[in-house]
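chain below, 113 aa
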Amino acid sequence: NEGTWAKLPGASPPQVLDALKPVLSMGVAMNPILLNRGMNAHIKAFGSVDDKGVTSLEDYTAINAAIGHMVASVPAWKTLDVYGAFSTIFPAEAQKYLMGKYGGGGGNAYKTL
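prediction:
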């Protein structure tokens, strides 16, 4: 009965749990060395959090680079599975916003679903 699983508007807890399955599958498929580097980047960033709860730009940049390498280490279809799993429960306006952040061909991943 944890409320965390019902935070997506219109999504039931079982729908959210189903959407998490490809996320976990993607995580398991990641290169373990890159996954370790990503986790260590997050841990390091905790040490530079200021009084407003914001980490340093250097640590933020390292986290994003690590995530990029982690995602790139799995087959593209696993990433698309994650997008597909959330496409039915993630609000359409939020999807459009995210697609707009990646310019030109960034939205093509969504369109293939």
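Helices lie at 13-29, 32-46, 57-72, 76-87, 92-100, 103-106, 108-111. The chain is about 70% helix and 0% strand.
thats it, cya
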